[in-house]
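Following up on my earlier thread - several people asked me to post the actual chain instead of describing it. Fair enough. Here it is, all 574 residues.
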Amino acid sequence: MFKRRIDLAACRRRSGSRQLQALACGLLTLGCVPWGHPRAASLTAKQHTHIAEPRPPGLPSDAELEAEHAVIGKIEIDTRNIFDPNDPRENRGLYRLADRLHIRTKPGAIRAQLLFKSGDPYSAEKLAETERNLRLLSYIYDANVFPVRYQNGKVDVKVVTKDVWTLDPSVSFGRAGGVNSTSYSLQEENFLGWGKSVEIGRMSNVDRTSTVAQYSDPNLLGSHWTAALAYVNSSDGFQRSAQFALPFYSLDTRWSTQLDAQSYDRTISRYFQGNIVDQFNDNERTYLVGGGISSGLVNGWSKRLLFGMYYDSNDFLATPATTLPTKPLPPPRTLSYPYVGFDVVQDDYRKAGDENQIGKTEDLYFGTEVTGELGFSDAVFGANHDALMVKSSVVHGFEFPHSQQLFLDGDVSTRIETDRARNLISDAGAKYYWRWRTDWLLYGSFSCTVTRALDPDVQLLLGGDSGLRGYPLRYEAGTSRALFTLEQRVFTDWYPFRLVRVGAAAFTDVGRTWGTGVVGNSDAGVLSDVGIGLRLGNTRSGLGNVLHIDLALPLKNVPGNHKVQLLVQTMQSF
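Reply from S.P.:
Thanks for posting it. Predicted structure:
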């Protein structure tokens, strides 16, 4: 709940280079076919969506249907395969073979995600939210939910989805901050077409080598309940986790519940100028029983009350690599507390495209969301730290004239012990988009983090794996950091093999840390870089979003750095 490991700066990325492996597998499978196809244009600029179908003429508007108290009638589920046989460019032997080898998503898996059923009052908002939820699924490329008929007070609704390739027998490679990562695995994101995810494999990165077995189910027994199991056996320990939950799957959901149990045994590394200078073992156990209640979606807002019980125990042990005798091991820490919180969400989403993805429908959030939690850790609950636990966050989006957008976010978490804030971490960020030409988008971002009295097992780091692309990973450490990125994004019409959409970027990054971290002051001052990159947007596989291939030139000479950095990594966005 309140624990954050900010040294894992790449936590929003997918591990490895799954986009690269998916592209390679696709090319080997499909062979050479004609290149080039007009790219799916920006929804913002050209109002295109991949599987949009026209609303039947003569059908009343959504407002009229709701005013007439229409109800949902028949629900048609149309799950479409990876390639479209009605498109002459995709009606080829190898494409048809790929479709035959792929197990198409079962209508029941889609039906389990719907926020409406036959007999419910017609709600355009529920249809739009169902679309957004479907697009979040890794095995769905796009979704369209719309009314098709209206008679005798009943509205028939059609749900159209488009599949992606989800079977991944792979060997992958990635590189960031001068360090390679590799993996080989067998993963299926849509097991037998029922939307379940299964993975077994082995991966290696700068931290550890791990054997992984995972299972997740987003619609347990055809319901909105979810379940997940994971077992990871690593070179430095293990991880076991289990989760069973009914989330707030809709803005109108009235209650939620969650059961979590996790056990970790891993090595924590302390970094100084990109090098590991100290290590120790962290044996962690966490348990969560929680839930929430809500009055549903009222006047465009969803207000939720959250509550539960959280337990987090950490035991720190020396390892053969422990090398800093002047830095004692962190003392054992057990936090155990009941908590209460709130979540206020405004319903304000809009479709876009060619912003963070390439040729894919995006759902941008322009509303306001505010969350907060309070807990009290005490010995009576099994804790060895008495503390008031505090956490809050806020996000908001703005839309300006001339195709400009601004998204702001901020959060803070801490625990207050004997009137002093410890492990205080405060983040603020801004992202700016300006489409100054149809296929050209100027992107700028700024993020900053301020900390106080960090726990000794937590480091605030900055480097090639966290946005400063011209420098080694985890190069600078401190108590505060800031990072600015300016990027000119270009979206092309190139669609090679009808597998990936191609874009490009020219960028500059500027960042630094301040303050003396747990292993000393590694602040090298302001670091900056410039570079260019290729972007490959995945259209046929659910195994990654956008592959980045970047060449970054550092503008400041620092010890141990190369003149040019090559980065190959899969990211969630452009």
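Residues 18-22+165-571 form a domain with the Porin fold (CATH 2.40.160.50). That should answer part of your original question.
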